[in-house]
Amino acid sequence: MEMDMYYEVLGLKQGAAQAEIKKAYFSLVRKYSPEKDPEKFREIREAYERLKSMDEDQAPVFTQPKDPWAKKFLDQIQIYQKNGEYELFRDACEEARKAFPDEIQFLYLQAKAQRMAGNTGKAVKSGEELVKKEADNKWFWRELAVSYQERGYTRKAFFAYDRAYELGCRDNDSVLEFSILCNDYGQFDKGTEILKEFINRKKRWQKEEIPQVFEAFTGLAILSEKSTEDAGDLLGCLKGFLEKYTIYLAENKDILVEVIALFAACFKNSEVKYRRKILEFVDIFEEACHSEEEREMAARLREACTEGWVYEDPRLSEAMKSGIEAFFIMGDLKSDIKTFAELDMKLCMIEEREEVLVQLDIIEDEYPLYFDKIRDFARQLRDGKNLEYLKSSMLKQYCRLAQYVGGGMYFEKYPKEKERQMGKVIYQNDYDTPYVRSEKKIGRNDPCPCGSGKKYKHCCMRKNAG
């Protein structure tokens, strides 16, 4: 049986939505039961099974032309289209359209061919003619929407996509494009609604469709900041999807990392429970990882989430935030630079202990990955014992490193400490080479004040003695 006959059996127009197909089927089987009319029931059942299994991204189905010349035109058109010869595809469609003006199939193919050949102005006119002829055909509205979009008529494209969607057009590309236009035109709840319907379809996603589902989640994350939809529902949808399609996560790791990172950015100022859910996504991804490279990617993603959230948290001081650089960003730098950054943070935190103690509770409760990095130091701060000794010990190393590592904020925030520890910087010649005149005698084993990194006895002490 030809495809158009299936629609005819159910009393529907070609391209009818799945909801219409289902409604027509149940209405007809009540009228033609297998007991009363088994042959008719078989036809209805066959038509329903065939149409309900059709992919939503399938093009409209047309009746085969009766005229043999029209059939030859159609055969040639399909060859040009299949081979990607778009100019020949366009020319053949336009010729067929002139020869058979009543064959709406040729008008549809003409609109498509004109668009694919780059003649978007002509494609728009052909698309507008299509919807005038059949105002309830979802495929014609979709073709017009794409033509509008490629022509740059984004406002018209939005309303054409909206109409196609109302008529039941649910192919993956159309839904994703429509959601983007919803965001552009401030229809945030509408965009969220259609994307949630898209990802919650009662179907098993094919392997090649997984990237498009992740694209839909990307759109939902962007829309979530402006939509009135409950964020918890959105996060629950993503978690459910990741758990269901774990087998495909590793091979889609790049786009998945982007999706989770985007969710982390969009929910940076949200409640703690939501941020914890995002870390659960990282857990699921990590469990799906097979190679060391993938596991490292998951670890970096976890650190990136923590890093972004800490930086954006208004409750945390500059000193507390600076630890992110020391522990997460400087991992590949020289050990001296990393050590200097850690000392810089810890010295500031000692000076600001009362303020920092409150922040430590926040870090421990909400940012466990970060807290693990400073756990021992946090215990010392909370205990409060021997902090002066600890500070003095760290300052010795800090002063040595400060002579050739820049960028610290401790001496900038506490200049008196700098003066007390290192003296005042003056200049002895035109080359602006600094030396330090300390208020106390420089010890033989002290770092040389010239900044060479050598001990004083091995450097300027010999020069001065000479």
Question: Please, could you describe this protein's structure?
Answer:
By secondary structure, the protein is an all-alpha fold. It has 24 helices and 2 strands. Strands 1-2 form a two-stranded antiparallel sheet. α11 runs antiparallel to α12. The longest helix is centred in the middle third of the chain and has 21 residues. The relative contact order is 0.04.
Give helix and strand order, one letter per element, not per position: HHHHHHHHHHHHHHHHHHHHHHHEEH
- Described by the principal axes of the CA atoms, the overall outline is elongated
Tally of separate helices: 24
How many E-type strands?
2
Low-confidence stretches: 424-441, 462-466
Largest pleated sheet: 2 strands, antiparallel
- Estimate percent helicity: 55-70%
- How much is the average pLDDT? 84
What is the CA-based Rg, rounded? 35 Å
Amount of beta strand: under 5%
Provide the spatial order of strands within the biggest beta sheet. 1-2
Distance between the termini: 108 Å
Structural category is mainly alpha
Key words describing this protein structure:
disordered C terminus, 2 strands, mainly alpha, two-stranded antiparallel sheet, 466 residues
In short:
The protein contains 24 helices and 2 strands. The chain is mostly helical.
